[in-house]
Backbone:
């Protein structure tokens, strides 16, 4: 391979990106050296096994990826603003919708929800950490390695261009000969393995590490949603693993699983992809449902209405999510029986979802509502998500879908569920738990400005796409002629997208502003909230709970506050056993990155060496004798004294 094939060339934008990547890297290296922060970075972050810090790293990565995916979105919207625009060419447009889709789903939505569950779930169940803290760090670094591998395709080798669903035969070597889709298969594989481990870790954590008295039916709704989500992960991700492995064999080793000739089946890919892909959308939406449930109950000052039916409907949704995948290709030609089956299962999902919507509304009924920024996101979520859901039922009708299929109507629909659902959900969660993580609240005024820009911008950006879709504008179309009449609505959509982007800028500015100006929250319970995480100081000490809480009801902390019963038993502190930090997960991530990178370019000898490196790392871990360390009772007493200003 020649160097000019290795580096992507010929595009001013990409040269610009290369230069800025180099400059930013140099700035970071110089900054770290100048301020002597290398040791701090290594000891406190890169080697950490603390669920709270791992959660923060996930959320930070997700925000960076939101920026990347958002820039992709603005580029597309700029191209589509006017007919026959020459801003992007067709190949470039293909690459950008592909990277936008992949990054938003896998490297933005996923790490954001996983980050929040990392920070919050152990605190909500009264645990000291997740069940396998070291494995948790491995999950993070594998996710991160995958995300970085995917992102460098922009400047090295070339981006994938076959859509986020990478349908064959389009994604095959024959029709997509660059290494772009090799990046797709390997980057998703590496980060997907990390996600699968997260699934195991959180199922065990929630089933085995709850504080005494916290029966399953006393768990906060966010914890419930995380449990169910991780069960979905456990069943869905292995399918992705297999599909991506076959894809890699086809593209790197010349096998014929998904090719059109030699006995391959291109539609096999579509089926495998969506057997994972549809549950995946519930993986990113259910935790948001959980977040909204906790927030709506907190800010209405009421118990969550219909607790049991909330749990039950999530279980039903998770089961149904595995029975609907063919609604993504009704036009495949499977016949009326098959389409009818998938049509009905898809519509059935509206029932448990509707149950949840009504439960949220009944929770609000006669509540003492305070419109804080997290609550505003929840309030906007209910109507907008319902609207998105109803357009989903329209798409679920197989015969009607022949008309909508692959049009802008679909693009509008899934943004109408993913943005109010997942994005508003994680933003609500971030505003809500921010004081728990960092010890101060985000400034409410700026948060509300950002909220309104985001909500209004979002609707202006996506509502026109429903009409464009019905008028026949197909998705993934890089330009259109003026006679189509698509121009004006597209222009409106682009303006909306920029308003939305300004909203995100304000939101990010608010981190800086609040860091400078917000009062530090000393009592740990700024929202007068209901669940255990609010019973401990903010920011939370490494060991989380100085004493193990005793749970007697749902909303345990609220119960303790209202009935004046102690959550923590009287008596002296006891020493706490903690896991030690380790550099191994980080190193494993780096090696996996290189293994993936070499395979992308079919450099088999280096890939093999990196593969051996992975095995060595696993062996090193197996023979390691590290039993962690202890925090003494005296030290805990001193920390608690300092954080609470008294003794508990
Ligand atoms: C932030 C504002 C956003 C804007 C303005 C935006 C805009 C767009 C546009 C213009 C397309 C391509 C339409 C086409 O030509 O087919 C698209 C596709 C897509 N978007 Fe977004 N988007 C945004 C956020 C998101 C988010 C948050 C997610 C997921 C969590 C997401 C997921 C997707 C996916 C999966 C595709 C399909 C990619 C493909 O066709 O392969 N988007 N978006
Ligand atoms: Cu689906």
Residues:
């Amino acid at each position: 391979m020649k160097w000019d094939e290795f580096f992507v060339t010929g595009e001013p934008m990409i040269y610009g990106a290369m230069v800025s990547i180099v400059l930013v890297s140099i700035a970071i290296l110089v900054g770290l050296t100048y301020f002597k922060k290398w040791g701090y970075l290594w000891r406190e972050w890169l080697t950490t096994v603390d669920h709270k810090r791992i959660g923060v790293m996930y959320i930070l990565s997700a925000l960076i990826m939101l920026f990347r995916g958002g820039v992709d979105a603005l580029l597309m919207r700029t191209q589509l603003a006017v007919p026959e625009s020459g801003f992007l060419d067709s190949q470039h447009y293909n690459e950008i919708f592909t990277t936008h889709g992949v990054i938003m789903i896998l490297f933005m939505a996923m790490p954001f929800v996983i980050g929040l569950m990392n920070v919050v779930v152990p605190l909500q169940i009264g645990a000291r950490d997740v069940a396998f803290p070291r494995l948790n760090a491995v999950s993070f670094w594998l996710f991160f390695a995958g995300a970085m591998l995917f992102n460098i395709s922009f400047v090295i080798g070339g981006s994938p261009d076959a859509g986020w669903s990478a349908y064959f035969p389009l994604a095959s070597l024959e029709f997509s000969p660059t290494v772009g889709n090799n990046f797709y298969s390997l980057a998703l594989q590496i980060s997907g393995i990390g996600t699968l481990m997260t699934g195991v870790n959180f199922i065990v954590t929630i089933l085995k590490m709850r504080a005494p008295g916290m029966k399953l039916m006393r768990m906060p709704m966010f914890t419930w949603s995380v449990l169910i989500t991780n069960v979905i992960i456990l069943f869905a991700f292995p399918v992705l693993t297999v599909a991506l492995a076959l894809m890699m064999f086809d593209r790197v080793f010349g096998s014929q699983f998904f090719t059109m000739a030699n006995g391959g089946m291109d539609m096999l890919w579509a089926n495998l992809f969506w057997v994972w892909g549809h549950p995946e959308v519930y993986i990113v939406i259910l935790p948001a449902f959980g977040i909204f449930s906790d927030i709506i109950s907190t800010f209405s000052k009421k118990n969550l209405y219909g607790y049991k039916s909330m749990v039950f409907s999530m279980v039903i949704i998770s089961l149904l999510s595995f029975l609907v995948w063919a609604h993504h290709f009704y036009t495949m030609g499977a016949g009326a029986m098959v389409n009818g089956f998938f049509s009905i299962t898809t519509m059935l999902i509206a029932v448990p979802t509707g149950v949840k919507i009504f439960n949220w509304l009944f929770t609000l009924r006669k509540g003492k509502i305070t419109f804080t920024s997290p609550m505003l996101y929840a309030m906007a979520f209910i109507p907008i998500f319902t609207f998105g859901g109803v357009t989903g039922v329209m798409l679920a009708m197989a015969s009607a879908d022949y008309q909508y299929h692959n049009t802008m109507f679909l693009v509008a629909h899934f943004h109408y569920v993913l943005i109010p659902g997942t994005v508003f959900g994680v933003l609500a969660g971030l505003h809500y738990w921010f004081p728990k993580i960092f010890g101060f609240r985000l400034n409410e005024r700026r948060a509300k400005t950002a909220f309104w820009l985001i909500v209004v911008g979002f609707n202006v950006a996506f509502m026109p796409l429903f009409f464009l879709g019905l008028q026949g504008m197909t998705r993934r179309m890089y330009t259109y002629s003026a006679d189509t009449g698509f121009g004006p609505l597209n222009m409106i959509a682009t303006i909306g997208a920029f308003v939305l982007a300004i909203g995100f800028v304000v939101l990010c500015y608010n981190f800086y502003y609040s860091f400078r100006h917000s009062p530090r929250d000393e009592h740990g319970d700024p929202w007068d909230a209901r669940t255990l995480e609010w019973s401990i100081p903010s920011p939370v000490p490494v060991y989380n709970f100085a004493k193990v809480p005793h749970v007697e009801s749902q909303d345990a902390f609220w119960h303790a506050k209202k009935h004046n019963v102690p959550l923590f038993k009287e008596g002296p502190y006891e020493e706490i056993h903690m896991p030690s930090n380790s550099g191994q997960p980080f190193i494993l991530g780096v090696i996996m990155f290189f293994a993936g990178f070499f395979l992308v370019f079919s450099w088999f000898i280096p890939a093999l060496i990196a593969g051996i490196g992975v095995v060595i790392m696993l062996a090193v871990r197996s023979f390691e004798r590290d039993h962690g360390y202890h925090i003494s009772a005296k030290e805990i007493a001193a920390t608690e004294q300092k954080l609470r200003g008294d003794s508990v």
In short: The longest helix spans residues 90-124.
